[in-house]
Structure formats: structure tokens, C-alpha cells
Amino acid sequence: MKKLRLFIPLLIVLFTVLSFAPTALAFCGFYVAKADTKLYNKASQVIIARDENKTVLTMANDFQGEVKDFAMVVPVPTVISEEDVRVAKPNIVERLDAFSAPRLVEYFDEDPCSPMEKLRSIPAPMAATRGTMENESSFADRSLGVTVEAKFNVGEYDILVLSAKESNGLETWLNRNGYKMPRGANQLLKPYIRSSMKFFVAKVNLDKFEKSGYQFLRPLQISYESPKFMLPIRLGMINSTSEQDLIVYILSPQGQAEVTNYRTVKVPSNVNIPVFVKNEFGDFYKSMFQNSYTKEDKKVAFLEYAWDMGSCDPCSAQPLNSEELKEAGVFWLDNFGDGNNRIRPGFGRPFIANNVYITRLHVRYTRNKFPEDLMFQTTSNRESFQGRYVLQHPFTGELECSAGRKYRQSLFQRFEKEAQTLAQLTNWNIQNIRQKMEITTEQFQSSWWESFLMLFGF
Amino acid sequence: MMFKDIRDYQIVFLSLFLILGIGTRDWTLRPELILIAIATSLTTQLILSLVISHWSLVTSTEINHKQTIFNFRSPLITALGLSLLLRADHWTTMVLAATTAIGSKFIFQSDNKHFFNPANFGIISALALTPDAWVSPGQWGEEWWYCLLFVGTGGMILKKVGRWDTTAAFLGTYSLLEAVRNIWLGWTWDVYFHRLMSGSLLLFALFMVTDPRSIPNATFGRIIWAVCIAFTTFILRNYFYLSTAVFWALFALAPLTILIDSLWFYPRFAWMQIENS
Asked: Which residues cross the membrane (chain B) (predicted)?
């Protein structure tokens, strides 16, 4: 029992210390640049707004060919009716991209000789059409086992919602009706047919497209209710051998979203890198992402941003207002009145929570590393995360005091560390980095006289 | 003596997984929550043991010396299991999970045997009662060496405990059901292997479904029990899209242990049995 007596106070002490451990992270600095999706040639972008079983899915088209050749076949969990489809404003995806993109921030060292010696960080400001109806009822092409569940047009798109009994029939139907399906498609259509999924098929109506005056295809937005929280990526890989980029913005009233059948890994973040990267931030981010992707054996989803949408710090774009959030598919905004705040019920410390939380996932996938479609879940994890890279500008004025001399000596080490971090993150050649940074030892070495003075604390 | 008790191996292996998890998987694993789980589990076990031994001293004239010895292994294993599988946003959730986990052993007893797996009970109560608990099934990845590690170390324990039949029945049934579904759907086999190679599924099959103190005593009973769990898991995962299907299946079927034990009588498992024999 003697040992036990010692053990109990120990537990109490441990418990008290842990209860008050701080968990919040501070993010600040001046926002300089962002690494948005324009960096990638073939990046598909999808917004998923989801609360419980209700989903609003916005698909942005990165289609680069002739508009007349555009056709899209997406497996969806339920029949989508005309009321469930709309065309979103073209810039809504760009707004979300800008808000959540990995960012570059900069700090400026203060004069170490001034009375305010300590480095102070200045926090960045906190900030918190539908087309005509074609009332054609469903009809079945019995010989092929394909049923047209719905047919309508929305904006510049002609939409069909199909259900099928077997994949060969569906493939034949699609080919007969002018949808060019790649070879081998029927093998991939079968599992979706067997899991009772429907097919959302969209084509561009050229007359309406010309009349609309838009130069690019606008994003299509569909809503449905289903416990399935997934994104079919297999169909997109039929005839592609190269890596494809997919950016998924998940909006939820709860917290961070993650992939349940692959690992979700944070992109490296919160590191100091050399100042010259300011001019080549895009290249830096691309190399760093590729390097992290290879290191993780090409089979993980990367978390690039996770934040409560009421604020950002530092902001690479202003937070979306409620109009824009609705445009992005957020349908639960009105449920909580004007404040958009609610107190979480149940066990645990109640706290105020804004009710739109964004998770930005970046998946680079290939057929051999991502065999299964992506399955997601939202969690209650409200920890904030951002891909954030820091430039720390050295003080360039006169350094005529002892603190100043110490500061100058410390710079060499700091620059070298920044160079090594950059080389490690991007796999770039460290000699080239050093050259670009113009690190030379002489620049930072003190004269014998200065060292002598420093001995006496001057 | 260390390693005389088979549970010591289990403690070492589970700790090893936790360390590997933090070191190589860069999860949202929070060390302070692990310590909270351990501290709460041990404290709850201690308090409840003291209450029970005091109660038995009052009610019976015979003094049972065994009950006064503090059992630290079982709550430690439960705490490690919780830390590996359960995620929470707030520390109170972990406290709730650990307290209910240990409490379930003392409350849900039948014939001096608890029928809920403590860690599983803790996970389910946190998922059901709090808004901020979740399980991250994807975070173990599907690297082959992890599989080997689980199978190797788990196999060692199961061989010593003699409960490998449960794991075999569970994994066998589950993989068979998934294979049939895969053929029916027409997916390629890489989809099937990817679904089965989930680290958390193996962790569950090797370390949770085999706890000898909460599963049926007779071999035949255990096999029926494990097959039922596999069926339920399969249905919950594929038709209700629950990512936490295994935990709900085990929770729902845990009381079946009492029924199976009454149908197939077999001496109750005791940790000391192997040592004595």
C-alpha cells in the first residue's frame, strides 16, 4: 500500500498539469502570396457542403477542349431531379481556392539596437438561372436496360439522369446518344450500377452556351440526400496514365473532414524559408508538394487547410460572406439565426462555434495507388491548420551595439538553416539555394575588435 | 515479475504501436490525451476495486486476498486501446471514455465475467454521448509492414492466450463476405485488398475481438460469436456506410456472450490458468 499512496498524488499532479496545457496555435505575419490551383494544369475542383445526410456537390470543370466535345458522367447515390440541379457562379470556386490556398507570409526583424529588442510580431488584421423545362417523363429503353430517370436542361447544360441494369447496355446507350465513352468504361460502370447508383450525365447545349455569353463552362451544382459520403474517382482514371490533381473543399457545420480509406496527411507547414522564395512561391509549392507526395509513397490525401470560415489569419482572401457561402452550397446557414453561432450540446466544455468549417484536401492520384473511390467523414476536430511558409527579413540598418553584433552573427546560422529547410522540403540543390541567397561567411563574421568588445558586453 | 503475465506483452505491443503511430504516421494523436486516458483508467480501476473489496469485506466474513491486489494491467491495456483508436477534441471526452470503459467491467457482469470489451465500450460511449469524439479508420494506412507487425505480434499473443480461433473466424468470415461482394460488384481485386488492408481492422481483429475476459468461453461458441460480429460489421459498413462499423458490431453483440456461455458450458478463462498449467 505504500507504493499506492505515492501513486495517487502523482496522478493528481499529472492531471492538473494536463488540464491546463495550452493547445491553441498562433498564426500571424503579413500575407504576401498564395499557391492557388492555377499552378496545376489538370486540377479538378469539387466543393462538398454536407450536414448529416444532405450533400450539395459543386463540380468545377477544368475542361480545356472544344465546348461541343464536353460530356460528363458522374455516378450519384440517388436520382437527381431538376430542382436539385443549378449552375453556380463561375467565381465561387476561385473564391474558396483563394481563401484556403497555401500562403506565404513575411516578418521583418526589428532593429536589435533599439530599446524594443525583442522581436515583435504584428498580427495581420483578423477578419473574421435556370433554363427552360422540358417536361418529358421518364421512359425506358428496355432492350438496353437503361432508364432515363430525368431529362432537363439547366443553364447551358443538357442534363440526363440515368439508371441502368447492366453496364454493357449503359455503355451502348451512351455511345448511341453521342457520349464518347472510352474503352473499358463498362468494366468500371458495373460496380456503380450494382450498388444501385444513378448516373448524372451532362452535355453542353451549344445554342444556349453561345447565348449565355460565358466563355468558360460554369460549375454544376447538385444536391441529394444519402448516407454515402464519397467521391467517385475511378471513372476519371479510365484512360489516364498520368497523375491527376483533385482539390476537394469540404464545408461542414462540425469540424475537419478526412478520408476514411486512405491516410490524410498535413502538408509541411509553418517553416522559415529563404527570402528569395518570394519571387518563386508557386515553383516552391509545386516542388514541395511533389516531394511530400513521393515521400508518402503517393497514396495519401494531403490536408492543405482546415479553418473556421468566420475568420482567417493571415487572410489570403477575405472570408466568404453568407451570400457566397450559400452559393458554395452551404444550406444550413439559416438554421441558426443571424449570429451563425451556436453552443454545442452535450458533454464537454460548451463553446461558441461558427457553423461553417472548411477543409481543403489535395489528392494527387493514379490508378495503381488509389484503387478505391474516396470515402470521407467529418470529425469534430476543430484544430486550425494552414499551409503557411514564413519569410523572415533581416534588419538591414546599422548595427552599432553589442546586441546588434550578436544579431549579425546569428544571421548566418539562421540563413543556413533556412537553406537546409528549403532543400529538404523541395529536393532542390542546396548549393544553388545558397548561391541564390548569397550566403557568404565573411558577411557575417565580426572583426577581431568587435569580438573583443563583445567579450566585455559592449 | 515482468512478462510472466501475457498481458505484459500486450502492453508492450500496444505501446509500441502508439510510439510508431506518433513517430511515423503524423496523426492527430495528442500525447496529453494518452496520459489522460491512462491516468483516468487507472484511477477508476483503483477506486472501483477499493469500493468492491470494501463491500465484500462488509458482506462476507471471508477475506479474499486476491481482490485487494490492484490490477493495473487491464486498465492500462484499455487506456492504450482507447488512445490508439479514439480521437477527441476535448480532454473531458477521453475522461468519459476511460471512466465508462473501466466502469463497464464492474457494472455489466454476469457470473463474475464482464461481457463488454472495456475499450470498445469506452469508444461507443464517447461516440454516442459526446459531440466531439471520432475514430479515424484511414490513419493506419495499408503498408504491408504494418500488417506484418500486427499479424506477427498479435499472433504471438493469441497463441499464448489460445484465442486465435476468434480472430480467424472474424477475419475469415469478413474477408469472404467482402470477396463475394467484390465479385458481385465487379471491382478489380486491388479494391478488395485495399479494403481489407486497413490497419485499424487488423488492430481490432487481433487485439479487441480476442479479449478472453469478455468473449465466450467455449471454442465453438467463440466461432459463432465472431462470425456474427463479422456479418454485422459487413452489413453496417456496406449498407449503412458506417466507418466505425466494427465497434458498433462488437458492442451490439457483446451481450450474446452470456447466452453462448449458458448454451456451451466451458470453464471460465483466468489469466493465471496458463501459468498454473
From this structure: 33-58, 70-88, 192-210, 222-240, 246-266
**Are A273 and A389 contacting, i.e. CB atoms less than 8 angstroms apart?**
yes
d(C-alpha B210, C-alpha B119), whole Å: 12
Q: How confident is the model at residue A345 (pLDDT cuts 50, 70, 90)?
A: very low
pLDDT band of residue B128 (cuts 50, 70, 90) is very high
Domain termination site, one of B78, B113, B135: B135
Interface of A with B in 227-246 (CB under 8 A): 227-229
> Distance between CA A1 and CA A9 in Å, rounded?
13
- Which residues contact residue A180 at a Cβ distance below 8 angstroms, ignoring those fewer than 6 apart? A69, A71
Boundary-marking domain end, from B71, B100, B135 = B135
Burial bucket for residue B65 (CB in 10 Å: 0-12, 13-18, 19+): exposed
Q: How far apart are CA A176 and CA A141, in angstroms?
A: 12
- Half-sphere exposure of residue A110: CA atoms within 13 angstroms, side-chain side: 11
Contact with chain B for residue A10, Cβ under 8 A? no
pLDDT at A215: 73
CB contacts, 8 Å: B195 with chain A: 261, 372
Q: Which amino acid would we find at residue A405?
A: R
CB nearest B35 (choices: A18, A371, A379): A18
B58 C-beta neighbours (distance < 10 Å), count:
7
CA B102 to the chain's CA centroid: 12
Whole-model pTM above 0.90? no
User: Is B149 in the same domain as B210?
Assistant: yes
- Residues of chain A found within 8 Å of residue B141, distances taken between Cβ atoms: 262-263, 299-300
| A260 neighbors B137 (Cβ within 8 angstroms) | yes
C-alpha triplet A105, A110, A114: angle, nearest 5°: 170
Residue B153 lies in a domain: yes
Q: What angle do CA A444, A447, A449 make, to 5 degrees?
A: 145
Chain B: give the shortest CA distance to residue A381, in Å.
5
The residue type of B185 is: L
Mutate which of B89, B90, B135 to disrupt the A interface (most A C-beta within 10 Å)? Answer: B89
Amino acid identity of B256? L
- The set of residues, in sequence order, having a beta carbon less than 8 Å from that of B219 and lying 6+ positions away, is B165, B266
Torsion of CA B142, B144, B145, B148, to 10 degrees: 110
Q: Does A18 sit within 8 Å of B36, measured CB to CB? A: yes
Out of B131, B138, B243, the one facing A345 most closely (by C-beta) is B131
- Contact map slice: A 353-392 vs B, CB within 8 A: 368, 371-372, 375, 377, 379-383
Distant-in-sequence, close-in-space partners of A136: CB < 8 Å, separation ≥ 6: A151
Local confidence band at A129 (pLDDT 50, 70, 90 cut-offs): very low
Q: Strand, helix or coil at A224? A: strand
Residues in chain A: 458
Q: By residue range, what is the domain housing residue B127?
A: 6-135
